[in-house]
Amino acid sequence: MSERNDNGNDLSSAPTSAATSTTPSSPSHPLMKSVSFSTASKQNALSRHQRRNIGLNHDHRSNDRGKSNLPQSCLSLDISNFNDGAPLHQQKNSDVIDEGLSRAVRWRNQKHDMSSSSIESEVGTSQGEDTDGGFMVHRSKRTRSQTTPMQFLDAISALHRAVARKDCITAITHACNLFDHNEVESHNFVIEKGGAHVALFKLLSIVISRASKTAGGTSIGYKGDEVQQLCRSLEMVHRASAAYVKLSYNEVGEDLIEALLHVIERCLDNVIRDDGDKCVLSCVQLLLYYSEMAAPKSVKYMASRPGLMQLLLRVAASGSMIDERGKETALKVIANLDYSRSGVSRHRRNLSSTDILLLDTLIESAYNTSADAVRNNAALGLNNLSCHNEHISTMSEEKVLEVLLKLLRDDNSLTRQYAASTIKNIAKIRGNAVRLVDHGYGTLIGALLAIMESEESDETRRSASKALKDMACADTAQRMSEHVDFVKILAHSVLSDSKDAVREEAAQILKQLSYTINAPMASHDDLLIALIRATFTDETVSLSIIGKALLTQSAESQNRKSIMEQKQLFAGLANMSVHSQHANVAGIIRNLAYDDEHKVALAIDEVFYMLISALAISGEASKYAVRAISQIATNADNKKKLANYKGLIESLVKLCRTTSDVTLRTWTRKILAGLVVSIGL
Q1: CB of 517 within 8 A of CB of 528?
Q2: Long-range CB contacts for residues 64-71, cutoff 8 Å, separation at least 24
Q3: Of 288, 319, 350, which marks where a domain is finished?
Q4: Spatial separation of the C-alpha atoms in residues 288 and 344, rounded to whole Å
Q5: DSSP state, 129?
Q6: Residue 69 vs residues 18, 91, 94, 150: alpha-carbon distances, Å
Q7: 346 with 337: CB under 8 angstroms?
Q8: d(CA 349, CA 347)
Q9: Which candidate in 53, 337, 536, 593 could, as Cys together with 631 as Cys, close a disulfide (CB 3.0–4.6 Å)?
Q10: What is the pTM of this model?
Q11: Is there a domain that residue 421 lies in?
């Protein structure tokens, strides 16, 4: 199946490396429709441009394959300390830089063709945040008016040429102002045609390398906001569509990630002091783009990269040093590294001290009282951790259950959903289910019931109902059923919830309780009332589940008297019959008819009508109905009532003629013989 971006465009043809075509979609970029020139003129323009602006004495592409003719100062970068000892692939980077420069120069020389193309949109100057499924993504709301492709490419060309610190600052400042908008097509353009991501990566490498050198025995270090503006520019450029973010990752992604981690670590260590919090925010935002739009390749690399998770955890737990947007973004990246949004594992990690640190960090973040998004992503992280079997036993500790209780009561619906889903995962182990039920004398049950009763979000209510269903087992059924209004709220959900899945989950919980709760337990009467009340639902699946629960209850002799005492019993069974639950209805009547004390009460027209309806259905329904009639007919007065009820003998005769079940036919003939005798035929 082909992959598509958020706009529904097919991404399956997107390029995967710099060696292939760099055009993810059409041969002509939307911003470059008016450009038309020959290959020869492009090559001549490239050569002229390089001699004029870069100072090369020969063509940009060397005849010696694999080597680059970029100035040596751009390539001989001491960046081996980016990932604390894991060297980068400098030769690969030089080829990519060479390719990026080639793009920018090749398009720059089309000035007379580009002058008619522009990016026209409304101008905005406010900074803001976009919402993506409840998670706040930091993006500028600015748009760029009347910016031509030529202006973009001039800025990128300046980035490619910059080496000296003064030139770097000038080029970066201009690029920062130019790229600060949310026009996806223009960001696609500067990646595909200009190689802006390559140019900015090159400059970041230069700045990091220069900062590690010494002059006169003194470390040069980081000066001004040079690094912060570079990281901001990189984040801006990657506000592109998924195909172009993937293109960027395939060309410079892994090495750019190493550079970003280096910057984040220096900011946290207070080595980079000027706007360090903004710098960290830009870096983790770019990591988020890669983890979401360049997956699964990027996620596999990032999740397995030593030290990356610990560094993100440092960001999430950095206190007032980093603002809340940086923390929430770091938590989102962590969540992406473990699981996709569908809950399918992308990359499994072994249980380690990092997992323990992650759990503690998530718990601390969940207690954050000032930022909804931080708590939301902490809840998401806990949910993802609970999907690993090796974490479940650890997550049943009191400190985790207490924070989950807090998250269940959070003001944010999505946070409550994640917390309920985490409880569901933890409850997979029966011992954990007992701890969950007993925690705080049932406070978790109360919080989940409150969500089922009053939550507006369908998905959050469903998560709560699934959590309660997994908590319900033979060891917990009695304690759960004794909770105030527990079965009453479940019956109400079966009857009136707007989402069928929640109705079905609530019915499943009642069914699970019916296996364990029997007379004379204190909660048995409440359970029966809830089951009878639930028989009036009009949702077929839920009604079938409730029917099976009553069938289970009626199979136990100690329960039958209590069932027969329910005032709405026959009305509920009639509703089930109307909704084609004939097998369950006939089975319940059969079980109740086993007791002599109930046979007279069952010999009424409403019951006879339901049994005739069941006789017309092949399979279990007709078998149960025949057995029920046989049991009721053991009473002489009942036998006459059955024989005189209109349509009953005819239905039995028809069943004898049509059924292929020999045993059923024998039972039916025996009943017919008795009925005929009772009325003197």
Answers
A1: no
A2: 66/91, 66/95, 68/94, 68/95, 68/97, 68/98, 69/98, 70/94, 70/97, 70/98, 70/101, 71/163
A3: 288
A4: 18
A5: E
A6: 18, 12, 9, 25
A7: yes
A8: 7
A9: 593
A10: 0.62
A11: no
Write the single-letter amino acid at 512: Q
Is 679 inside a domain boundary? yes
pLDDT the model gives residue 59: 35
> Under a CB-based contact definition with an 8 Å cutoff, are residues 214 and 220 in contact?
yes
- The answer to whether 17 and 246 have CB atoms below 8 angstroms apart is no
Q: Please, what sign has the CA dihedral across residues 106, 108, 109, 110?
A: positive
How far is CA 57 from its chain centroid? 55
Spatial separation of the C-alpha atoms in residues 31 and 366, rounded to whole Å: 45
The verdict on residue 378 lying in a domain is: no
Pairing of strands 127-132, 135-140: antiparallel
Q: Which structure tokens are listed for 257?
A: 């990630």
pLDDT tens digits, 231-275: 999 999 999 999 999 999 999 999 999 999 999 998 888 888 777
Measured between alpha carbons, how far is 531 from 526 in angstroms, rounded to an integer? 9
Cα end-to-end span (Å), the chain: 71
Rg of the chain (C-alpha set) = 36
Six-digit token string for 8: 């529904």
Q: Does residue 540 lie within any of the structural domains?
A: no
Alpha-carbon torsion angle 354, 360, 363, 367, nearest 10:
-130
- Please tell me what DSSP assigns to residue 30: G
Per-residue pLDDT reduced to its tens digit, 16-45: 333 333 334 433 444 444 333 333 333 333
User: How confident is the model at residue 339, as a pLDDT?
Assistant: 52
Expressed as residue numbers, the domain containing 617 is: 593-681
pLDDT digits (tens, 9 = 90+) for 364-381: 888 877 778 888 888 988
Low-confidence winner among 302-306, 457-461, 540-544 (lowest mean pLDDT) = 302-306
Q: What's the CA gap between 103 and 107, in Å, rounded?
A: 6
In this structure, the chain runs to a length of 681
Q: Specify whether the CB–CB gap between 196 and 179 falls below 8 A.
A: yes
Paired with 135 in beta bridges are: 132
What are the Cα distances from residue 269, in Å, to 259, 280, 321, 638? 15, 12, 11, 89
Which residues 6+ apart lie within 8 Å of 461 measured at CB?
451, 452, 455, 493, 497, 499, 502
Domains identified in the chain, total number: 2
